From TrEMBL:
Keyword list, A-Z: Glycoprotein, Hydrolase
Name of the protein in question: Calcineurin-like phosphoesterase domain-containing protein
Tagged with keyword Hydrolase: yes
Example of a GO MF term: phosphoric diester hydrolase activity
GO cellular component, one term: extracellular space
PANTHER family: METALLOPHOS DOMAIN-CONTAINING PROTEIN (PTHR10340:SF57), SPHINGOMYELIN PHOSPHODIESTERASE (PTHR10340)
Protein origin, superkingdom: Eukaryota
KW Zinc (keyword) present: no
Amino acid sequence: MEDDIAHVNDEHLSTEKVLMVMQNLTDLLRLTFPSQFVFPVLGNHDFYPQNQLPPRRHPIYKRVADMWRHWLPNEAIDSFEKGERLSCEFLDYLAFDARKCVP
């Protein structure tokens, strides 16, 4: 899951609109696939203003981390909230490692 927000000019968006869309999608995925793992990643349009994801703590990271907490281990949440890469290990043979998807 990443880059969920419409590709429109910032004048049509706000932080609250971006977070509302992300919450709606998160809820839909949890309801539709309750026993499946989803690896969430922020895309460059999943932030307001677009393409401005800071490499440090930011209130939006905290709010998004709270949405995704049920999918991710605590150490991944901690890294995500700091603006760092998201890394998770599952089983002995499966791992995910992603930076926020910014061009």
